[in-house]
Amino acid sequence: MTYQELKAEENQYVMNTYGRFPIALDHGEGATLWDVEGKRYIDLTSGIGVNCLGYNNEKIVSALTEQARKLMHVSNLFTTEPMVKVAKTLVERTHLEGKVFFANSGAEANEGAIKLARKYSFDKYGEGRFKIVTLVNSFHGRTVTTLKATGQDRFHNYFFPFTEGFDYAEANDFDSLRKKCDDMTCAVMMELIQGEGGVLPLDREFVKQVEALCREKDLLLIIDEVQTGVGRTGSLFCFQQYGVKPDVVTMAKGLGGGAPIGAVLAAKSCCDVLTPGTHATTFGGTPLVCAAANAVLDTVADGAFLASVREKGEYLKNGILALGSPAIHGVRGMGLMLGVIVDEGKHTAFANKLIEKGVLALTAGKNAVRLLPPLTISKEEMDEALTIMKEVF
Questions:
Q1: pLDDT digits 0-9 by tens, 133-187
Q2: pLDDT digits (tens, 9 = 90+) for 51-69
Q3: Nearest CA among 83, 52, 53, 50 for reference residue 288
Q4: Is-above-0.90 flag for pTM?
Q5: In angstroms, how far apart are the furthest CA atoms of the chain?
Q6: Do strands 337-341 and 368-371 pair parallel, antiparallel, or not at all (unpaired)?
Q7: Are 68 and 316 in contact (CB under 8 A)?
Q8: Structural contact between residues 246 and 223, judged by C-beta atoms closer than 8 angstroms
Q9: Collapsing DSSP states into helix, strand and coil, what is residue 28?
């Protein structure tokens, strides 16, 4: 079908909840995509950070194919090897000595972390200690609860009443956060790089101060690694570069390499809080998606691979800065999670122009063109993207 034919049927049958770009994608290889009409694109989005190993990755395709012939789903009333293997890898590679709960998305993972934090506090202190402090400009998901956890007023609309029990501190302002952490508080939840908020890394000193406060007050430190995790910033998880030891880490996106999966990794301090009957999901940890996650982790958890992500990130960042465009005011981020900073309000126009010329890009915050390319992107693909960026910027 042509794009126009597909779009006509989409308008008839699919809810209009997305501002889609005028493209219908058909297939891909590496970090390159083709639409239904044969136009070629260099992908600097990877499905909003999901397709971390690119398209038509042989390891992921083989893992899914082999597992589909054995078992796709059996429910969580039974144990399966792929699920156990993913959990073991995550625990051992993070050195948190904890346990994993599997979900289906980043929002679900964050919901699980919120429930865990509140039960942890209830078990130790009883009722009344339920508040979770997040950061202004954060983003934690689209469910009614994770929308309220998100520290952006524009998300707190339409769906009243929202789940209560959240408060918001200013990022990188420790006094602001300390004042919010009162006797009703049970946890602090934050992204180390605010992705949707504009690709804004937190200051390392601030993060260390928050960790110390959590230890002092017995608050759980929840790090939302839905976008920053699984190699995206050049380490398996971003918190490893900040030198902190969280109580809870949430993840999704790149963990499945394209298959839908989320996970809550709880450290030794709280890994036994959720007990039978207190939390569950039908599809979490199903063998099919865990087979994909194992293929991803077999690649991404390797030190040489992570070093290559850091090198590619520097190459792309320096290449963008070397364009010398007065429209570009800087590049921020870590690894292959980058934001090209432009004048406020112009990021959407730049992203649209890049897509028109053959480079897929995203936006974030008020002034960032967000880049989340596959971690396997080649130098040749980056160079091609930079050539188009020079024309556009």
A1: 999 999 999 999 999 999 999 999 999 999 999 999 999 999 999 999 999 999 9
A2: 999 999 999 999 999 999 9
A3: 83
A4: yes
A5: 61
A6: antiparallel
A7: no
A8: yes
A9: strand
